[in-house]
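Table S7 (text form). Paired inputs.
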Amino acid sequence: MEVTDNDAITIRFVIEHQLAAFQKDDAQGAFAFASPAIQAQFGTPENFIQMVKISYPAVYRPRSVFFEEITTIQGNITQPVLVLAPDGVPLRALYFMEKQPDSTWRINGCFVVSVEGKKI
């Protein structure tokens, strides 16, 4: 699938707004940007935000974020985002994106991988 410039802008908007919702502990707001499959997996906004809080502290409370170029990983449209974790460790969050039947974009998973670098 080809990603248009408008798609790229929308994908960034979705991720930025989910990150902003995490900053405000807005479980409902953050959950709204998750794909239907992720919503079904966690059931409630509270379950979802609790999982992110525990398993993804770098995404839940990043010190900074930097969007890289969208790519495809194993057939998934993926937005890599460099994040600086609360403890100062640089990480790359790989957001798997899914276009919905109504043409909106939702987050269909996020994987955090290490980045070569030192603690800042």
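Next pair, protein 2 of 2.
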Amino acid sequence: MKKALIIEDNRDSIRLMIYALKRAEYEVIAAETGEEGVHLALAEHPDVVIIDINLPGIDGLEAARRVRKASAGAGLPIIAITAYAMAGDMERILSAGCNGYFEKPIDPLTIVEKIEAVIKGA
């Protein structure tokens, strides 16, 4: 079974992503802070990390950078799902180490297909 880590501080967003991922037969683990997410990404070896950018503690950009710096996280697909949609945000997110970027709100019926397309291209 594939494993996904969600790093998100909004419980409604977590529930929505869990619903979408479990429908696609993913095992799902979740973290509500950037620090906890980095720890789980390196300890649990998920197949994909789905990360919000605006998090308590370290933000999603710093969390992605920390995962990328660790040898265990070097090839791990990291996908940002965020409300940031201003000019330059996508470039900033991708340059922090994310493989893909999707704007909120997400469609729970199509998001996993989009995530898997990014994973295949990573």
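DSSP finds five helices and five strands in the chain.
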